[in-house]
Specification:
This protein has about 375 residues and is of the alpha/beta class. It folds into two domains: about 45-165, abc type-2 transporter like domain (abc type-2 transporter like fold, 3-Layer(aba) Sandwich); about 170-365, no CATH class. About 65% of the residues lie in helices and about 10% in strands. It has helices at about 1-15, 20-40, 60-70, 85-90, 105-110, 125-145, 170-200, 205-210, 215-240, 250-275, 280-300, 310-315, 320-335, 340-365; strands at about 45-55, 75-80, 95-100, 115-120, 155-165. The chain starts with a helix and ends with a helix. The model has no long low-confidence stretch (mean pLDDT about 80).
Length: about 375
């Protein structure tokens, strides 16, 4: 029994001495609980929408006020013509547009029925369905109030139109998300593990004192995973087209460009991870838990970012996969060009540059 207690004490001593292990053991569960608790929700809140009011009467203003006062929607813009609807969707800011027909209130009072249109961005089919149901419920409540003690009830017909994905295929949302997750994990995790493995075996020092430049050593580590990532991209795109029926609506060249930049960003992140870890196990833990969890939770792939607390919305901005998934959906599904996604592309390029600069500085420090 005394020997058992001695070994238990020794093991606790090793755990307490390793600050990184303590951070993983005690800090990671807290972070996971907070992220899972706040991020995992099927509700959609604070979603930006657009309004096209062709009637501008008391009935439409009443419905608009009810929609705006709900926690689900924020009116981002008011449109003046039907031509502006698709333009508004291509900006990426709005997820839903409401169109009121002319003479909305007049038709309701004189014919007892009228019509409005709900247009949603169905590149995320679950969110599109949820938002359309929210608006329909608000309109139904307004209609029921009007019909109290009425012999001839008023009827407001809501026509729902799903843009970009009329069949509401879930693959339109899952394929871009899977691409963002796979490329980040393979590029970052495998690169970091490959470099750290050389450190553990003691061969990194041998390589660094050889005639080869350190940059050549690092490139020799990342280029194979760059090629593997490209093969994965081609495979995913072929499967999405021929199996799931998701063709590339936009420019294939633009899609390739943003994918290559994202892969380079992921590789740079993998190099950065290798400079702060000294074991393959630590590199794998940081890559899996530190990258996979944010990608799934905070990239908009699985859960709407607009429904999260503000602090998580801010943190999501540092997740490279968020910006890549936005661009992939815009180019691949919506057929959007470079002019509409240049901001997201610059963010990814900025992240890549930052990761490379920090990695180079830390790598030089280790050589001294």
């Amino acid at each position: 029994m005394k020997q058992l207690l001695t070994f238990i004490k020794k093991e606790f001593h090793h755990i307490l001495r390793d600050k990184r292990s303590m951070l993983v053991l005690l800090g990671l569960p807290i972070v996971q609980l907070l992220i899972f608790g706040f991020a995992i929700t099927t509700e959609t809140r604070n979603c930006n929408i657009a309004i096209l009011d062709n009637s501008k009467d008391g009935a439409t203003q009443n419905i608009i006020t009810r929609i705006e006062s709900s926690t689900y929607f924020d009116i981002d813009r008011t449109l003046s013509s039907n031509d502006q609807i698709e333009i508004a969707f291509k900006t990426g800011r709005i997820k839903l547009a409401i169109v009121f027909q002319p003479n909305f209130q007049n038709d309701l009072l004189h014919t007892n029925k009228t019509q409005m249109q709900i247009i949603t961005d169905a590149s995320d089919p679950n969110q599109a369905n949820t938002l359309a149901n929210y608006v329909s419920a608000i309109v139904m409540d307004y209609q029921q109030e009007l019909n109290q003690n009425k012999d001839f009830p008023y009827t407001i017909n809501t026509e729902i139109r799903m843009l970009y994905n009329p069949q509401l295929k879930g693959e339109y949302s899952s394929v871009p998300g899977v691409m963002g997750m796979i490329l980040l994990l393979i590029s970052a995790m495998m690169t970091s593990i490959s470099i750290v493995k050389e450190k553990e075996l003691g061969t990194m020092e041998v390589l660094l004192v050889s005639p080869m430049k350190p940059s050549i050593v690092i490139l020799s580590k990342v280029i194979p995973y760059f090629i593997v990532s490209l093969i994965n991209v081609i495979t995913i795109l072929l499967i999405s087209d021929f199996v799931f029926g998701i063709p590339i609506q936009g420019s294939f060249i633009l899609l390739s460009l943003i994918t290559i930049i994202y892969i380079v960003c992921s590789l740079a992140l993998g190099i950065l991870i290798s400079t702060v870890t000294s074991s393959q196990q630590a590199a794998m833990i940081i890559s899996l838990m530190g990258l996979m969890l944010p990608v799934v939770m905070l990239s908009g792939y699985a859960f709407p970012i607009s429904s999260m607390p503000m602090i998580l919305q801010i943190i999501s901005n540092i997740v490279p996969a968020k910006w890549y998934i936005i661009m992939i959906k815009d180019v691949m599904i919506k057929g959007i060009g470079l002019f509409e996604i240049w901001q997201e592309l610059l963010i990814i390029i900025g992240m890549t540059t930052f990761f490379l600069i920090i990695s180079i500085k830390r790598f030089k420090v280790r050589l001294q």
